[in-house]
């Protein structure tokens, strides 16, 4: 088979490097209002504070890294990287956080973002947004787990509103999606086939619940799944309603590496949305290239993360810098109704 020939991969890697997405530029163009030096004078130690705090936190809870990475993705895909996923519900309605795809975001990851915010406010005052802290925490999750150490453009402001459950469901694809559905969902955010395969590599760390992949093991084995992998999953999830969890990357569950793609090549991807990347001809060559070249994956992942991290950002004088990542600052962003503050409905 051509795909096992090393020359084939060499050619493929070369083609990928020459593709329009991967020319000499190693980072996408900056969104208006963002810069790599945004806090240089106002919070010069920001990045080292976050790195040191998370280094310590990951030692006692390795899963926190996965939780933080996923929060940034869920923040950016829905209404942009504005920290809206961090907000608790309010009188105006249930929060984005309580929409179905967000129910499995880790509470300790939300707590960690608030703790980082408090720590940063002590060092620099209230200058760094929760959306920027989330983006930097995601980078540390990748880097401290063994992945690339990419630069994060900063200057995001925190949004004043959160998305509805319907909007959340529209922008966050289900794990049962095939590649066509995934590509259509990513296109809503101007992300393409290369972004899809690279960003899905986030599944090299973390866990999934049986309910997220029970369609592949009940009533019988999805034919695109390896038999032994299936047997083991059926032990973890004896019934389709079990609430157990399993690792997303069966080879190196806590290490940020390219083994997720090796899993896919071996038909050991967990979700339909993972395994179909190998089955579908549009994404298969990229999966194979990443499975064979970790450096290529790291480069493309960093590129797509920076691109994702700039989706619909609020900058300049828009939004605010929250004092508590879970709540809008009191008295801000509220419309004035009958001379009183608090008419929140109009603000949404
Ligand atoms: C492309 C479409 C994607 C789908 C359909 C998807 C779906 C899911 C699902 C269903 C889970 C497990 C939820 C559970 O059962 O507990 C999960 C976990 C996770 N996802 Fe994704 N995801 C996608 C893209 C991404 C992206 C772009 C990233 C980051 C770059 C990411 C990072 C993660 C991480 C790190 C976890 C583990 C979280 C933890 O252990 O707490 N995912 N994803």
TrEMBL record:
Keywords: Calcium, Disulfide bond, Glycoprotein, Heme, Hydrogen peroxide, Iron, Metal-binding, Oxidoreductase, Peroxidase, Secreted, Signal
Signal peptide stretch: 1-24
Entry function: Removal of H(2)O(2), oxidation of toxic reductants, biosynthesis and degradation of lignin, suberization, auxin catabolism, response to environmental stresses such as wounding, pathogen attack and oxidative stress.
UniProt lineage: Eukaryota, Viridiplantae, Streptophyta, Embryophyta, Tracheophyta
Cofactor needs: heme b; Ca(2+)
GO CC annotation, single: extracellular region
Similarity comment text for this entry: Belongs to the peroxidase family. Classical plant (class III) peroxidase subfamily.
SUPFAM superfamilies recorded: Heme-dependent peroxidases (SSF48113)
EC number: 1.11.1.7
The gene coding this protein: PER12
Organism name: Acorus calamus
Name of the protein in question: Peroxidase
Binding-site residues for substrate, renumbered to this chain: 173
